[in-house]
Amino acid sequence: MPFVKLSKLPQNFELPEENGLSFYENVLIKAKFVYDKFKKTVIADDSGLVIPSLDGFPGIFSSRFAKKMGGFENAMKKIIELLRGKSSFAKFVCYAVLYLKDNEFYVFRGEVEGFIVNPRGNKGFGYDPIFLYPQFGRTFGEIPYFLKDRVSHRGKAMRQLIDKLKELHKKGRI
After folding, report:
1. CA atoms within 13 A on the CB side of 46
2. For the chain, what is the domain count?
3. Has residue 62 been placed in a domain?
4. Is 163 a catalytic residue?
5. Which of 46, 55, 102, 163 is catalytic?
């Protein structure tokens, strides 16, 4: 089954603006755009940090907020500042899509709950250093990738996607 690998796309290739109102809408915008351009199976994801006490912020704007703030370090500082006196409960959310063709796609959702803390650790990326995973008692910035993958939002969504790929392959669909 031919896939489009982003690293193999022309350097001037730009993904469309993610102007959806949810992770679900944004992941479909990206996948459909790439499918329409190359007519090949696409796997895409959209994810972010959701903080209920901040009305879901940064949510679908997680990456854009960090960019606007001059990087994740500044974005994390701002989030901690905004949380003063509020609940630090947070979750990472990921939507992944397997886009086979128009009107045939499968969307998968993964989520992991935790709390926002002062930055700890230098592993992972993005908001990992401020996301405390209670079951490990450490932030995603402190744990090795293989452990994070077992419990993370993206890991959960991608395992569902892989199961669907296996099912479709077994049925001779891909």
Report:
1. 23
2. 1
3. yes
4. no
5. 46
